[in-house]
Structure formats: structure tokens, C-alpha cells
Amino acid sequence: MLLEKIKPLFDFETLPKPVYIGNGLTHQDIISVSQFDTARLDYIFARAHEMREMVERVGAVDLLKGRVLACLFYEPSTRTSASFIAAMERLGGAVIPITQGVQFSSVSKGETLADTIRTLEQYADVIVLRHPEIGSAQVAADYANVPVINAGDGAGEHPTQALLDLFTIKEELGRLDGLKIAMVGDLRYGRTVHSLTRLLLQYKVSLRFVSPEILRLPLTLMNEVIDARLDVRETHDVADVIENADVLYVTRVQKERFTDLAQYEEVKDQYEITPELMAKAKSKMIVMHPLPRVGEIHYAVDADPRAAYFRQVKNGMYIRMALLAAVLGKA
Ligand code: ASP
């Protein structure tokens, strides 16, 4: 008689897929938007919603009590640094802020990024880094044993800004597919444009890129857009896009990235969104800006309900709360 085949304890083929705490983000570095597929985006957006409800109801909770965030900023920041700090504090965690004062840290004594990171990880459970060089966040992540979150690496990426931008569009307009999104300004050096464009490639959107000739979207990124087979056009003139746009994403010309300041002077005042221009736009469109603005949106536009940039700022805190909770395994 043949012995009965020993049955495996589990049929691995039919077992449900593991559900990861934080949707696979636990202990992960956040370096690029390429880490976010639509499932992961939906996950973060759902958590951000919960964070908003929680903040509106009780202000703060103890979810990250006992956890420490090191905020290391080698470039100026108002919103990104403040929102990460607020996010951590509203979740009951603590922050080591090296934000406005890198010049007072050992960086000014010539300490390398690697050594600074290896020091901070002795104190902190997660490190948020802003640095002027493209690729610096990945370098830091290679050295660190704790998760590193990219808060802007030069003209490279700004993934957390792109998450909050996408979240804002969805919150304000209720969808992403089918929208016409126009990006205006410095598309060459604007890292927020680079990250947001990459995220948008996962949706059925139409893209309009409005910039001076020298500030057009980098070719590699434009090729990614073309490969995604989206409806895309470039122009130098906001008037070409204002009537049909659902989202007008306005950006600052990134003075700090220019080697020739005369060139910056030539293009810095090319665009200004005014009430007159807004009169031509759809009644349901939104104007966004990662801020700071330095003249690209007239102050008179602020009173227009379509001006979404300060609501966008608030969304940044909820998104960063969701992200910190996920990375630290407290979904
Ligand atoms: N705050 C954004 C950034 O850090 C946009 C800007 O600075 O123009 O990239």
C-alpha cells in the first residue's frame, strides 16, 4: 500500500497575501516617488484622512510616544521642516531639530554627511534630510540603519511634497483621472514638479507644461511622460492653458540652482497669476503652489476660493503624520 502523501501544513498558493503594517513602508527609506504605486498612495491617503479627523477631534495622540525624529536640513525650509515637527509632536513623538541651524552643528566644522547621519541614528528612530545635492538622500540611506526620508535633494526629488500635492488634488477635486493639470514656472530645477509629474504618470491625466525656454522640463522626465502615453503639451504662455486647466500648479524660479544670476533675472518675473487671469479659469479649478511664492501669484488671488495653496500646506502635516506612522510601524 502506498503511503499517503504528507500534506503540507499550509497551501502556500492559496494563503492570503500578508498584510504589511504600514503597507510595506515599515522601516523603509522614503527616497523617491517611484516607491509609491496607486495601492500605496491610496493607503497613505486613507491614513492621512484619519490623521485629519484625529487632529480635528483631539489635537494629538500617543501613537509615536517614545519615538524620536531627527530633522536635518542643509537648505532653508519653513513648511517641510515645521510640518514634520508638527506631525511628530501631534503623534506624541519627539524631535531633534537641526533645521535652521546646520551652521551651528558640526557640519560647519567639516563633518561629512555620512558621519552626521551615523551620529544622529544613535539618537533617533527616523531621519528627515534636506540637502542641496541630487542623490544625497540615497547616500544617507545607504549609511543609516534607521529610515531616511528625503525632504528634498537639490533639484532631484521631493517625494513627501508630491504626496501632499496629489492628496490635495484628490481632496479638492474628488478624483485624479480625467483632470487637466498645468505646471507653471521652473520645471527644470523645481524638484516638486519632478516628483509630482512622476506620480501623475500613474493616472489618466492631461499634462500641460508652461515655462520659459531655459526652464523646460528635463528631457529624461519628458521622455518618461511620453512613454506613459499621456496627452501632453508644452507652451511658454499661461494664457494657452488657463481656460481648460483643472489644476494650475505654480512654482517659484529656483534662484539657488542658477550658476548665472543674469539668466535668473531674465526669467524670474515671467509669470504672475492675477485676478484677471483667474477670471478666465474654470469655476471649479484650483491653484496650487508648493510655496514660498516670490511674486508668481498675486496676493489678490488669495481670497479666491480656488486658491488652494494654504489648504495644501495643512495637508502636508496629515500626509507626513501618515508617513511617519507607517515608516515607524504604527499604522
Ligand atoms: N518648498 C519647495 C521646495 O523645497 C518649493 C520651493 O522651494 O520653491 O522644493
List the helices and strands and how they pair.
Elements: H1 38-58, E1 68-73, H2 79-90, E2 94-98, H3 113-120, E3 126-131, H4 136-143, E4 148-153, H5 159-173, E5 180-184, H6 191-200, E6 206-210, H7 219-227, E7 231-235, E8 247-250, H8 261-267, H9 275-278, E9 286-288, H10 309-327
Parallel strand pairs: 1-2, 1-3, 3-4, 5-6, 5-8, 6-7, 8-9
Helix pairs in contact: 1-10, 2-10, 3-4, 5-6, 5-10
The site of aspartic acid has 7 residues, from α6.
Descriptive report:
The chain has 331 residues and is an alpha/beta fold. The protein is 34% helix and 14% strand. The chain has two domains: 2-157 and 316-327, Aspartate/ornithine carbamoyltransferase (Rossmann fold), CATH 3.40.50; 159-313, Rossmann fold (3-Layer(aba) Sandwich), CATH 3.40.50.1370. It has ten helices and nine strands. The strands form two sheets. A five-stranded parallel β-sheet has the order 7-6-5-8-9, covered by helices on one side. Strand 5 (180-184), helix 6 and strand 6 (206-210) form a beta-alpha-beta unit. The protein starts with 37 loop residues before the first helix and ends with a helix. Aspartic acid is lined by residues 152, 158, 191-192, 252, 290-291. The site of aspartic acid has 7 residues, from helix 6.
